[in-house]
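Hi V.,

Quick status before I head out on leave. The structure for the redesign project is tokenized and pasted below; the design run finished overnight.
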């Protein structure tokens, strides 16, 4: 199995845990009206959503350039979708099927999305 196949498998595992009913890890971020409006804006069209995903992922690659290739890189889109879903439906308690570490790459991407919306 080559490196990218390993990363893909890891992604599938993290993703499965993240959407499972008993996901045990979460990233808790503050929900507010500004973020709600921001999320409404980015989910209003495919274009707006794709652009937000690209911007968030670009920032992630800049800020965490030392991170090894991982689940975030396989599909930043999935993680941003999960962020939007839980900000709106779980009041900012976002599932993370990887771990609860502060420096978990998935949590890092969640926080980038959060700060992009919070500063708009
Ligand atoms: Zn993790």
């Amino acid at each position: 199995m080559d490196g990218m196949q390993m990363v893909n498998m890891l992604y599938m595992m993290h993703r499965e845990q993240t959407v499972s009913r008993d996901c045990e890890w979460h990233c808790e971020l503050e929900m507010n009206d500004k973020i709600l409006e921001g999320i409404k804006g980015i989910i209003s069209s495919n274009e707006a959503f794709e652009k937000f995903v690209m911007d968030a992922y670009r920032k992630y690659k800049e800020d965490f350039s030392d991170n090894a290739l991982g689940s975030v890189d396989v599909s930043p889109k999935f993680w941003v979708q999960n962020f939007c879903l839980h900000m709106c439906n779980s009041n900012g308690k976002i599932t993370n099927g990887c771990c609860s570490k502060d420096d978990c790459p998935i949590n890092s991407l969640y926080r980038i999305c959060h700060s992009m919306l919070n500063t708009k």
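Above is the designed sequence. The two ends are 43 Å apart (CA to CA).

G. will cover questions while I'm gone.

Best,
W.
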